[in-house]
Structures are given as structure tokens and as C-alpha cells.
Amino acid sequence: MATWTPDLSRKGPGLLLKDIRSGKDAQIAAAVQVIVAARPDVLVLTGFDWDHDGLALTAFADLLTAAGMDYPHHHASQPNGGMATGLDLDGDGRLGTADDAQGFGLFTGQNGMAVLSRLPLGAVTDHSAELWRDLPGNLMPPAPPEVAAAQRLSSTAHWEVPVNTPSGPVKLLAWSATPPVFDGPEDRNGRRNHDEAAYWLDRLPQGRFVLIGDANLDPVDGDGRPQALRALIAAAQDPKPASEGAAQAPQTGANARHTGDPALDTAAWPAADGPGNLRVDVILPSRDLVVSAAGVLWPAPGAPLADVVAAASRHRLVWVDLELPR
Fold first, then answer.
1. pLDDT tens, 239-275?
2. Which Pfam families match (predicted)?
3. 2-323 is classed in which CATH architecture?
4. Distances 73 to 20, 32, 51, 173 between C-alpha atoms, Å
5. Strands 2-4 and 317-323
6. Helix 55-66 crosses helix 26-38 at what angle (to 10 degrees)?
7. Rg for the chain (alpha carbons), in Å?
8. Which residues, including other chains, have CB under 8 Å from residue 23's CB and lie 6 or more apart?
9. Residue 166: is it exposed, middle or buried by C-beta count within 10 angstroms (0-12/13-18/19+)?
10. Sequence spans of domains, the chain
11. What distance lies between CA 183 and its chain's CA centroid?
């Protein structure tokens, strides 16, 4: 299975569908190549615009089918991204901005999530409507009563997705968190990012599961509060997917200040004036699953697909092969 943030989000509703149907968008073509090269049986996409009728996801899946990678099973329910609240959630005195949506977004469904699968999916449990204030031990900063009564925890979504394999079901615990930056000294985004990971700590099922998605947080480097993510890693198993491309990336600028293994990085941001390369996309299987292989699709410079991978997204596809004993 795999998780990837393909950056397939646009600045307005319907624009992603338009670009997919045009057949002329180089980034979309590169994204198709990346997925076909990885060939995961189950793929969690984060950073993919949602629309009510699922037209963009269906059109994208059709491109994959035409390229030889058929995913007959899909899931994409409405995310919190761009969901209007009518409230001043960020307290800046203005209403109706992208920061006042349940999750940052210029329109309903921006930067949503999706699951594509070659295996049948069971009934999905969507936890995305749960309030931030209701998470035990939450780090939510003080807020007016009307904001606290409306503010959801999930910036995008929290889903439980059963995957029905020949060896029995495996439950995906999928989420995509807000980046722990772009706020002020109250650290609202950093606190929310922490709690989006912490949400799963008391909800790990007894059976086989995989924590999967874009934590938007490096457990070692960069900004943020990594305690909850580290606790999830300790509660599951960490295959530590790595790549030659990340290992060979220049360790200058922000990268030079990092202490984690650069081979484990999954996203490339500017190192000169940005956070540099970070490990933010995770696949953490439960301890009763056997990991046979793991990696990040980040080829070394000059290797086949290196330019395609770089053109597709700032993020790199993370994959883990699991053996499921009967």
C-alpha cells in the first residue's frame, strides 16, 4: 500500500476536473506516471480536490486505468477543507476567509483526501465532524464559546477504511493534518497538528490496522509538536521507508540543521528559505502485520523517473509491502 500527496489541488472548484479532462496538464501526467511506477494495491491520496459527485476522482482513476493501473474501488467523502462556518475561527476580525473554514480552503473540498484500491473496501467510518474541544487532553487554545462549539478537529479528515483482503480485513486509519506553521504566538496550527495525530492514540483497534497519510510533521526535524506522532510510531511499527533521492539531496541551508536521517525524508521544500526536506508522510502498520519491504519513490538525481517525480509534487510517494498471514 502507499500514501502520497500529489498536490492535485487548484484555486477554484472544478478546475482540477477541467485540467484532468484537458489531457494537457503536465503535472497530472507526471502524477499518473508516478502511481503506475509504484503500482500499489491500495493508495491513500492527500491533497486532492473533492467535488460532490466525485467527478475529478473518477476522471483521474480513468487515466490510471488507461495507463494500466485499474482501481475499481474508491472512497472520497467531503473533507473539512474549505467548509464554510460563518464564524471568525482565526480571530482576525474578518469573516469568510480561507482561515475561517473548518479546514483552510478557498472552496469546499479543496485539498481533500481519497482512497483508490484494487481490493474491495468496507463501510468507511468518518470521524471528521468531531469537535476539537471534545478530544481528551486537547491543546486547543482559548476560543469564544461559539467557535469552540463549531470548530472541528480535522483540518481535512479522519477516516477508518476497512480493506477486505483475501487474508481478512485491514483497517486504514487515514488522516491529513494541517501544517504546524502559518500562525502566530498562540501556535494554533501547531496545536491542531499535534491533536490530529493524538486523535488516533485512544482509537487504535484490536485487529490489524495501518496508520497512513500526511501527518504534515516530521518526528525529528522542523517545526511542530511531535510528541503525539512519536507516540503513534511507538504504538505501531515503523518500517522507515527510505530512498536514494532523499539520501543524496544536498544537506545545505535548513537541511544542514536537521538531525534525522535524510534518507527517510518524504517531501522537498526549499532549503534556503524554507523548512527543507522533511519526513511528513507516514505508513505505520500494527505490530501483527509483517512488513516485507518499504521505500519512498524518490529516485537519485539522473535516475529514471527522477524528473517525473520532481515535476509531479513536492511530496514523494511512500509505499510499504505487507504480508498478511491467514
1. 999 999 999 999 999 999 999 999 999 999 998 889 9
2. Exo_endo_phos
3. 4-Layer Sandwich (3.60)
4. 19, 17, 17, 17
5. antiparallel
6. 60
7. 19
8. none
9. exposed
10. 2-323
11. 20
Residue 323 vs residues 43, 168, 237, 290, 320: alpha-carbon distances, Å: 17, 12, 14, 5, 10
Beta-carbon contacts of residue 141 (< 8 Å; ≥ 6 apart): 186, 187, 188, 191
Please count the other Cβ atoms lying within 10 Å of the Cβ belonging to residue 189. Answer: 23
Residue 299's alpha-carbon distances to 68, 81, 244, 255, 270, in angstroms, are: 22, 31, 6, 18, 18
Chain segment 46-87, per-residue pLDDT in tens: 999 999 999 999 999 999 999 999 999 999 999 999 999 999
Our CA dihedral for 224, 273, 244, 70, rounded to 10 degrees, sits at: 70
